[in-house]
Amino acid sequence: MVISVPKEIMEGENRVAVTPDVAGKLIKKGFEVQVESNAGLNAGFTDEEYTNAGAKVLGDVQELYSNADIILKVQRPMEHPATGKHEIEMMKSGTMLITFMYALHYPQVAKQCAEKGIDVISMDMIPRTTLAQKMDALSSQANIAGYKSVIMTANVLGKIFPLMMTAAGTIQPAKVVIMGAGVAGLQALGTARRLGAIVEVSDIRPQVKEEVQSLGGRFIEVETDEDMQDEGGYAKEASEEFLRKQKELIFKHITQADIVITTALVPGKKAPVLVTEEMVKNMRPGSVVLDMAVEFGGNCELSEKGKTVKKYNVTIIGEPNLPSLVPTNASEMYAKNLLALLEHISKEGKMELDMEDEIVQGALICHNSEIINERIKSLLT
Ligand code: NAD
Question: DSSP states of 84-100 as a string?
Fold first, then answer.
């Protein structure tokens, strides 16, 4: 089977779905690999490296799409700036597209794929099970995002992170508040601690308290009788009452912080607003907010997607795609996730989808010209 790897076309996307190393491994598994010319360049991988790994480098995008059996991408398909055609239009019926589709947020794109007869495995729908851990691209990319969020905010802050005792006086450590202790939040916590900051973390799932403490963070706990976690370990949508209580409690912590990093998401839902305008108004001048949830509605009332703005003397970073700012490592990890998935669903270079398999059941969203995921289907009716 032929695997095609296009150059990503979403603005600001520097990652590539397959690295030369993984291309070589896929070829050893029996696949043919075609890569669009310069597909890996922004992530630091040259055409020559892909060629040396045994892949074919193609300049003609239409050819790349139309002779593919499997297309590996990072972002959902969209209109191609070079050809003026939608990427879906360029794919042939029966192709398997594997990418971050985020179909719960963009159900129409899934619908267009189904109508064109394109099968879709969505990397954001891979179940968070032990077996699927190697394919868990949400986690691999969230780890990178968590790290980068700290580096970006540290760079803007007019202070250093660690306690420093010098002849010229003692510098107090920076105070970082992290909202959401999922994969990204915990990585941000670890990174900020390593740089010497004092870190406080809030999450609606009390189950994460021990993890936060073991990484050297202080847990801001909202007392509640509500069960905040579903069977999958994800946050449930919090009640109005809970969010009100949480806002009251975190007001003091946020307004005393130098840096606030928000990572709070509820899968398939708009992100909860946690940092209000009133809080930002009361933050110290020079402090920094980074809203990692900006792509899905934002955790901060004042963040703007794709922009860094200054409001009430607070810098608010609304970068929607942090992994893309660390494109080499993010691509390496994502490519390994894809390789693990393909090893799971293929044999000797041929796709063998087991419809009873829980990973296939979770992540295959379009099949045989239909949307087969009930949640996505319900969004379209
Ligand atoms: P996520 O990106 O969906 O959300 C980030 C965090 O925001 C979560 O911890 C969530 O509880 C929190 N949140 C939601 N609403 C909030 C609010 N109002 N205030 C504060 N925090 C709020 O989460 P994720 O990183 O994808 O991880 C979700 C869960 O899945 C975690 O328990 C994680 O440990 C688990 N997980 C399991 C595996 C595995 O078993 N293989 C792999 C990855 C993640």
Answer: SSBHHHHSPTT-EEEE-
Task: Tell which phi-psi region holds residue 12, choosing left (phi > 0), alpha (psi between -120 and 50) or beta.
Answer: left
Cβ of residue 181 lying under 6 Å from some atom of ligand 1: yes
CA nearest 257: which of 234, 230, 275, 272? 275
* 288-291, strands of its sheet edge to edge: 218-220, 198-202, 175-179, 259-262, 288-291, 314-317, 308-311
The yes-or-no answer on residue 139 being catalytic is: yes
The answer to whether 128 is a known catalytic residue is yes
Which residue's entry shows tokens 């699927």?
A: 132
Q: Which residues of 195-209 are buried (b: 16+ CB within 10 A; e: fewer)?
A: bebbbbbbbbbeebb
Look up residue 123 and give its two tokens: 């990397």
- Which residues in the chain come in under a pLDDT of 50? none
pLDDT tens digit sequence for 62-91: 999 999 999 999 999 999 998 899 999 999
Atom 37 of ligand 1: nearest residue by CA position: 128
Exactly one of 234, 256, 361, 369 is catalytic; which is it? 234
Q: Is 268 exposed, middle or buried (0-12, 13-18, 19+ CB in 10 A)?
A: middle
- Residue to substitute in 133, 262, 263, 358 for testing ligand 1 pocket (most ligand atoms within 8 angstroms of CB): 263
Which atom of ligand 1 is least distant from the CA of 243? 18
> Is 124's C-beta closer than 6 angstroms to any atom of ligand 1?
no
Whether the CB of 245 sits within 6 Å of ligand 1: no
**Cβ of 200 below 6 Å from ligand 1:** no
- In the chain the beta strands, taken as DSSP E runs, fall at 2-5, 32-36, 56-58, 70-72, 96-99, 119-122, 164-166, 169-171, 175-179, 198-202, 218-220, 259-262, 288-291, 308-311, 314-317, 346-347, 350-351, 364-367, 370-371
Domains of the chain and CATH, by start: 2-125+328-371 (3.40.50.720), 139-325 (3.40.50.720)
pTM equals 0.94
Q: Which amino acid is at 142?
A: A
* Digit-coded pLDDT (tens) for 5-40: 999 999 999 999 999 999 999 999 999 999 999 999
